[in-house]
Request: fold
Amino acid sequence: MDNHTLKSTAFLIVLLLGLENAVSGSSDVRHCENVVKRWASSALEQQVKGDKHTLQDLLFFLHVPRTGGRAYFHCFLKKLYSNAEECPRSYDKLRFDPSKKKCRLLVTHDDYSMMSKLPKDKTSVVTILRNPVDRVFSTYEFSVEVAARFLVHPNLTSATQMARHVRSKTGGVSTLDIWPWKYLVPWMREDLFARRDARKLRLFNKVEGDNPFDMEEMVMPLHEYITDPMAHDIVHNGATFQVAGLTNNSYFMESHDVRHCVQQYKTLGAHVLEVAKKRLDDMLYVGLTEDHKESATMFANVVGAQVISQGLAANSSMELADDSKSEQSLSISDADPDNDDHHMQTDASNNVRSENASKENPVGKGEHMTVKKLMEAYEGCISGLRKTQGSRRSASLRRITPANFSKGDRLKVPEVVIEQIRSLNSLDLELYKYAQDIFANLHTRTVQKMASTEGVVLGSILEENTDGIALWKILSWAMPVGLLLLLILVFVNARRRISKLKI
Reply:
């Protein structure tokens, strides 16, 4: 066989292989289109029965990580629901039992697929969304922060052994059991130990630079973090996948295939985004992390007011959760699934004291809860909670000094990295914009409703007691007297005008 024939044969083989790959790729695209469209069509067909603006028997707080959900859990919901009304925690997907009697509150990082385990017609869903760029920053910082707590151990082996020992001894739930931290923290922990070992080998422990997001000798730089397959699978567009119910922690059997197809063929993400938007439309409340004060006020008036109303309708006074019992249920650190600043379980006693410190200005037991009292209790609680979080964060980040993250340091991240984060989270950016519109509409509707019920609000204020005598009774006596005085004044003025006319 001459050279010309060999070249022709080789060309034909390459051509055939190329055609085969093209056909195979085209087939894969069609398969993914069918998988995603079939799932999306099924999800969009599901309708919410009843008034979505009315609180149902069960409240499901879908907590998107790093959105401030812990504050809502501790400073709102635990003041509205008793411990007995909380559903068993489901963060480790082992303890959740939707059949528990009097189960009225579920707060979890689990995604929307949890609804497949709940009575749909009797469940209201609420959530909070955050600007996607800030959420990626916060997720990166928290992954590093928690992983850095292991650096007190001499090596990675001893750290992991201690974590297993403490968890098996207490039988509790650690940060390492909770999605998504059960994936992100071990990954970052291994990286921190590898970099510490590398510094020891070089006998050089000093780290230069003023940008904590790019100190590769100390911690994985942000630009490496966002391009890692782990971040692609869990972090990027995480809010959209969680609201749609398609995380790698999903209860939906088809979730893996759908998520894989969307990650492989970006254009298919539009179908998942459409489903996520519908989920938000059907929710009782959608808050925004950035509009913290306004979101908290809205939550108290939209959700809190209805919880209070349900309690009053059942002739049961709304009481604060029993603090002592609450803390006993958190006998180990990290047992609280909404804890945004988890400690290792060896810090259990510190964690309990910290939670007690966050409960300032509680509404007294036995008192009727009102929206006003709820907001007052929230303000005191959130103040203590922020102090606790700040001290925990500082203690953890000291172990990786000078990589001490701050909001000001985020300004040092190059714009090209910020743009890359935006590009990788295009679905979340669209969903966040949609959530902003929902929030604006909810705000308008709530203000109008509050204005139309001013008389009812005034009536509730007048019912408060003063020195044992109902204020409304005092006013009921005073108003006729005032009216009589007004009539006398009008009569006297009329007599004066008449007398002037006669002169």
